[in-house]
Write a structure and sequence with these properties.
5 helices
Length: about 70
């Protein structure tokens, strides 16, 4: 993920989690990963690979492109 897109990804990830009423632990359980890993994604300490990005999109009910796109359309 390009550095420029990292803030967009973090913002959209947090926004969607808030919309769903999920905490990091909730998302981690749905992804089958740890809360620590989700925390690292949310804070920008880790960047998701393509497979993880697709899993996140599926679990969050959004298109993967929305998570990383500069386009403001939802």
């Amino acid at each position: 993920m390009a550095t420029k897109l990292a803030p967009i990804f973090r913002h959209r990830l947090q926004h969607r989690m808030e919309q769903l009423g999920w905490c990091q632990r909730d998302l981690a359980e749905k992804l089958g990963t740890t809360q620590s890993y989700v925390s690292q994604l949310v804070t920008g300490h880790r960047k998701p690979g393509l497979e993880t990005l697709e899993q996140l999109a599926e679990v969050l009910g959004v298109d993967a492109s929305w998570l990383i796109s500069e386009n403001t359309a939802n």
